[in-house]
Design brief:
SH3 type barrels; mainly beta; globular; 1 helix; elongation factor; translation elongation factor activity; Transl_elong_P/YeiP_CS; Elongation factor P; 2% helix; OB fold (Dihydrolipoamide Acetyltransferase, E2P); protein biosynthesis
């Protein structure tokens, strides 16, 4: 338990019957009239939905401990992703639902941050940008600018993104894992 006066950005609260919410920002407000209160912006750990919530100053809120560990993705086992803790070599099977869109950019050997609460995997997070190889893309046709200078390309994970016309099959590129956008070539 913590008081709303102790809130910090990144702190995880357990509200509304056990739902986990991360504090994005908070502000202590002391109006001229009436009691002080704390205005917060909270993000749902599971869904990513952001809400505004106001608490009376000094109200007790339940905090949750989130265990974040860097783990290496080993292989797929049916609908499960198997991650290995590089310190203990323990293996952890993570459901596809917890991995979410991160699966679009995940290949064997990548290190990801796995967040757990009371033994349950909440989400898997990759670095902001990863390097992946283009598995297939059609050659860019000179003079074809009708698509804004981009063409579809399939990554080694099977995910398709838009890349500039000069990118060829087999090239290594940087991809933003949050948006799926092309960031640039990787110089060998």
């Amino acid at each position: 338990m913590a008081s709303t006066n102790d809130l910090k950005n990144g702190m995880v609260l357990k509200l509304d019957g056990g739902q986990l919410w991360s504090v994005v920002e908070f502000q202590h407000v002391k109006p001229g009239k009436g009691p002080a209160f704390v205005r917060t912006k909270l993000k749902s750990v599971m869904s990513g939905k952001v809400v505004d919530k106001t608490f009376n100053a000094g109200t007790k809120v339940e905090t949750a401990t989130i265990d974040r560990r860097d783990m290496q993705f080993s292989y797929m086992d049916g609908d499960y992703f198997v991650f290995m803790d590089m310190d203990t070599y323990d293996q952890l099977m993570v459901d596809r639902k917890a991995v979410g869109n991160t699966a679009n950019f995940l290949i064997e050997g990548f290190t990801a941050s796995v967040a757990q609460h009371e033994g349950e995997v909440l989400y898997v997070e990759l670095p902001a940008a990863v390097e992946l190889t283009i598995q297939h893309t059609d050659p860019g046709v000179q003079g074809d600018r009708s698509t804004g200078g981009t063409k579809p390309a399939t990554l080694e994970t099977g995910y398709e993104i838009g890349v500039p016309l000069f990118i060829t099959t087999g090239e290594k590129i940087k991809v933003d894992t949050r948006t799926g956008d092309y960031l640039g070539r990787v110089n060998s």
